[in-house]
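Practice record 12: protein with adenosine-3'-5'-diphosphate.
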Amino acid sequence: MDTPQQQQDRISPEAKWWVDGQRIRHKGFWFRPEFITASEAIRAHYTPLPSDIILASFPKTGTTWLKALTSSILRHSSTIHDNHDHLDNLNPHEVVPFLEIELFGENASKDITKISCPRVFNTHLPLSFLPDTVTTSGSKLIYITRHPADTFVSLWHLYKNKFGTEITIRQAFDDFCKGLVPAGPYFDHVLEFWDARDRDRVLFLTYEDLKEKPEENVKRIADFLGCKTTVEKVVKECSFENMKNTSKEREGVHWSGTKYDMFFRKGVVGDWKNHLTQEMMKELENIADLKWSESGLDL
Ligand code: A3P
């Protein structure tokens, strides 16, 4: 029999529309149980190497783009030798594996010891779910985030289109505000990485900055990784239009059941204005104030 706390830390699949399977709260964050198990395996068995590159993000904040940019930077680098699969005909999710899925998930499909260096991994796990050594072993950590309103709108579209769930945007928005979304609460996720941003080997990026100044930010990533690279080539290769067109030519679906072209929807800043009211925006700002004001974080 569950204790009241355990009951509070569970959402049944029927209770909330975008809970695709049971979710449990672990260290304050909502995940499917298998991700909690995977995070424990990561903490126990993943030893970051100084050359490892870990790309972290909350879902729908620019993960796919960051994966593509990092792969492309390494590919065009004249200073780092990289012999991994590249983007030519691949979706970035095939090139950069998720720590909690392909490497340490219950149906892991890749052996971490067989991946050649520099190894690039990706995760949606909060920083507190990763081994402490990710910020002390010399490995590099890049976090990307995005304004909560656009993050929510992107997430809402993915779930609506992927699962065909019928729910009003208002109900979905209330869940987002309460943190009842995959990897949520969004605000706490971002804060954990923001608090680590001053460490030597942590780079904190925003989707909005990347959109506004792609060359400058690609250079920042390349410098952080210690790569000399052809910035213009990288920006072009990873542009929304280029990636969306390439993904359309790809057949089949990603392991998550997502069709490849569903990773590319609009790719703009400010789409929230087409879906949310000013009052909803104000609600997000109030939560940000409450959770972030002391940290100086403001997106
Ligand atoms: P929208 O739904 O607002 O269009 P993630 O990769 O974390 O799942 O984030 C997905 C969001 O990033 C989607 O936002 C998607 O369109 C956008 N995106 C994907 N690739 C991009 C790119 N190359 N440039 C800009 N935005 C991109």
